[in-house]
């Protein structure tokens, strides 16, 4: 009698966990190098911000937010509805969510291929960061109107244009880079 394999439907949790663990490993390695080799705690503080940005991206602002049943979308809970317009406009694994794929005519050129694979994800990262920023500004404007002050949009503007936010976005980019390259390695498409 032959055993049959149980087929488990793909729900993204393994993909999510591998991406999360790999991101943790890369950031831990960079933190270790910054302390042991360079003996620079200033760099370590930036690595901490990158780590937080990567975790936020992996948990809640992933390229898979365009999928209705993705792990990051479930993390939004009842607020997941804010990603419905995003999912309607941007289709899964499009240039706008997962970055560029090297055009066939350039795949033989290793430099161009490397650049597409290494930096194409930035479009999705910046796009999702802007999407969240616009939503926060709309909420801030509404709160300003209710309280008759510009406090909320002023605070948001200060936060958006700070160095901390820059390092958060770098962390988001690292998480997205790992995610999109993992997609390319594991996908049949």
Described by strand count, sense and barrel closure, the largest sheet is: none
Radius of gyration over C-alpha positions, nearest whole angstrom: 19 Å
* Helical run tally: 9
In N-to-C order, the SSE pattern is: HHHHHHHHH
- What's the end-to-end separation, in Å? 35 Å
The share of residues in extended strands comes to under 5%
Shape: globular
Beta strands, count: 0
- Domain module count: 1
Q: Low-confidence parts, pLDDT < 50 over ≥5 residues? A: none
Structural write-up:
With 189 residues, the chain is an all-alpha fold. The protein is built from nine helices and no strands.
Fold blueprint:
Elements: H1 13-36, H2 41-60, H3 71-75, H4 84-89, H5 95-98, H6 110-119, H7 122-147, H8 151-160, H9 163-186
């Amino acid at each position: 009698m032959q055993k049959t394999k149980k087929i488990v439907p793909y729900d993204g949790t393994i993909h999510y966990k591998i991406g999360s663990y790999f991101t943790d490993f890369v950031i831990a390695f960079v933190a270790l190098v910054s302390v042991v080799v360079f003996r620079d705690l200033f760099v370590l503080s930036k690595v901490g911000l990158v780590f937080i940005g990567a975790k936020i991206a992996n948990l809640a602002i992933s390229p898979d937010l365009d999928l209705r049943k993705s792990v990051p979308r479930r993390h939004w809970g009842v607020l997941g509805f804010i990603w419905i317009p995003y999912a309607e406009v941007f289709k899964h694994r499009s240039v706008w969510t997962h970055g560029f794929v090297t055009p066939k005519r350039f795949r033989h050129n290793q430099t161009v291929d490397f650049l597409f694979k290494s930096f194409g994800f930035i479009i999705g990262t910046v796009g999702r960061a802007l999407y969240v920023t616009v939503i926060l500004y709309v909420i801030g404007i509404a709160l300003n109107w209710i309280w008759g002050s510009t406090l909320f949009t002023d605070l948001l503007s200060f936060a958006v244009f700070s160095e901390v936010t820059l390092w958060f976005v770098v962390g988001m980019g690292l998480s997205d880079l790992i995610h999109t390259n993992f997609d390319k390695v594991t996908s049949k498409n």
